[in-house]
Amino acid sequence: MMKDVLAVELQNYLRSLLPESGTIAAEQKKEAEESHIPIVEDEVANLLGLLVQMAKPQHILEIGTAIGRSSLAMAENLPPWGKITTIEMDEDRANRAQYYFEQSGSAKKIELILADAREYLPQLAEKETFDFIFLDAAKGQYLNFFPHLDKMLSPGGLIIADNVLLNGWVVDLSYPNHRRKTFVYRMREFLESMRDNPKYDSSLIPLGDGVLILRKKEN
Length: 219
Fold this sequence. Notes:
With about 220 residues, the protein is α/β, with parallel strands linked by helices. It has one domain (about 10-215): 3-Layer(aba) Sandwich (Rossmann fold), CATH 3.40.50.150. Helices cover about 45% and strands about 20% of the residues. The protein is built from nine helices and seven strands; from the N terminus they run H-H-H-E-H-E-H-E-H-E-H-E-H-H-E-E. The protein has helices at about 10-15, 25-35, 40-55, 70-75, 90-105, 115-125, 140-150, 170, 180-195, and strands at about 60-65, 85-90, 110-115, 130-135, 155-160, 200-205, 210-215. Helix 5 (about 90-105) links the parallel strand 2 and strand 3. Helix 3 packs parallel to helix 4 (about 70-75).
């Protein structure tokens, strides 16, 4: 699905420069389109893979598996010792993601947890650390999730937050219906708080629907 952040012509051109998708990625994209399941855009999947190659994380946390498109983009670029813990609250989507993990041969690298991140993250933060976190769950919850992510993230680690521009609604505080007003405001609050957080370096990239990259300072 095209987003409103960049002109359609520019989006198409950017995608024309990407490597060709593999068979499983193509199958996932087809299922997502037919079943109206939100998954990462091709350009964002490509960026995730590149960042994993560069950062060489040992343990990745993903919040919001959907059917596993982003999980596999990261798993395919993980070093042999790397591991992904991914959280999904929808059982049907989690089952489909597990199917794709098995088909790809990456299942041994990925632990899929069926849970509501709002309830599970506080527990996880008490026992685990991660050096790379991909955040792609309920957009209105990013601000609430962050204290737990900060607690779990190792110094020098990365947080990648997807869909932070919300189709451009955050720019002029427009939204398609009143129901979405709260999460548009909360996303702006999240972005501004990350800008002002002295513990992190950040860069907001207008790719896909907006990607925020945060790096936790080491001192």
